[in-house]
Design brief:
The protein is mainly α. It contains 16 helices and five strands. Helix 5 runs antiparallel to helix 6 and helix 14 packs parallel to helix 16. This is cytochrome-c oxidase.
Length: 516
Amino acid sequence: MSQIPPAGPASSAAPAAPSTAEADRSARFEVFTYDDQIVRWFVIATSIWGLVGMLVGALIALQLPFPEANLGEYLSFGRLRPLHTNAVIFAFAGNSIFAAIYYSTQRLCKARMFSDAMSRIHFWGWQAIIVSAAITLPMGFNTSKEYAELEWPIDIAITVIWVVFAVNFFGTLWRRRVKHMYVALWFYIATIVTIAVLHIGNSLALPVGMFKSYPIYMGIQDALVQWWYGHNAVAFFLTTPFLGLMYYFLPKAAERPVFSYRLSIVHFWSLVFIYIWAGPHHLQYTSVPEWAATLGMVFSVMLWMPSWGGMINGLFTLRGAWYKLRDSVVLKMFVVGITFYGMATFEGPALSVKTVNALSHYTDWNIAHVHSGALGWNGFMTFGMIYWLVPRLWRTPLWSQKLANWHFWIGTVGILLYILAMYTSGITQGLMWRAYDDAGRLLYPDFVESVVQVIPMYWVRLIGGLMYLGGVVLMLFNLFMTTRRAPDQLPDPAVAVPRRVGAGGDGQAGGTPALA
């Protein structure tokens, strides 16, 4: 693959007739362009919504130890908490997924996206959905289903936009000029297909008003369907697409082939089979049948193997290239992100085990676990991807490497403070709630006693969260200054490929992305 150099200054002489060599090149090579504009849009949206979602998170983190920060009905904790989760998951992480998919799919398939119009409908439709969530959730329109709080009109809009995205993606696969499909594409396929099934299955409801509906499921069935959705939204929205991101962008940044392509295939098939069964582990010690909770626990423990296989594959890709971390903020971000992936996927199965769950259930331990995954794994992988993409998309060097390194260190220390505070808080809560005296009575019968005990940890969590948010602010400023120096015109890059491309995920045998 080669990019076509820009045309030189116009000559006053009449153009010469094409030579035999030029005609032969035209016959042997096909020229097309990648749509990089849509990737730039999604990168900008990712950065802006990340700031918004984390600002809301900082506010609700303040409201717990300082109730006076509940600023009226629409800005209370109960209204803002679902806004925070939706903004971070579907706005920040969602837009980063789409940026990664639109950039890497075109290059892995050697084809422009199937439809430019569909790409733009997808972008603007997704942003409209996010804005509608930002309006309706503070107003109290809420289904009360975790990660699926949006009411039925917005759910229908999500379905329509997801179908547009799916048709655009699979149309690109159909038109690809490369026979082999690199493993990142398989992770994207799993994401698109499974999220569609999960969203439709969990969102089936009977509308009783413009912004009110009731699920068609009742009681235990509703709980099981909700956590089949909830856990697998984490699996197929916050895990599989980011693994595709990892398998594409990490070898590019490290300039090394992926450690084991065979391991990546085993990782994919084992992960997508096992993950889908793990949802009931969220319902330990509830009215759900014991066999269902046990089944979820067993499959959760089985997830250790493929999850750690993926982590090992990612980190071992850097063998012989660890020295590059000194100068590459992108690789620093990726290494921390993959490490947090390993930590979160070890901890999740551990929390599903009944004896551990008896201590952790309903405590802040779960908050630590979720944020180590969302901010540690998804956040740092997104930051690394953005720092790698921006100089290429805007065709200018990053404005300040020093500022990017400050972002890395502030964000890393911030997330560590956050999760350590929540681990301490969660274990404290669990031990106090199950403490008995010699007579078998609760040692702390008043719930407020445990609340008072963990307030200092909430302040530490706020400090950690503000540091993480500060890193995002540094990134936004850095990106703004970088894009200001970009050329006025950013035409889509023209690419020449042989009319018949052999096997290989990005023009190389074995499916490893080309490093050029």
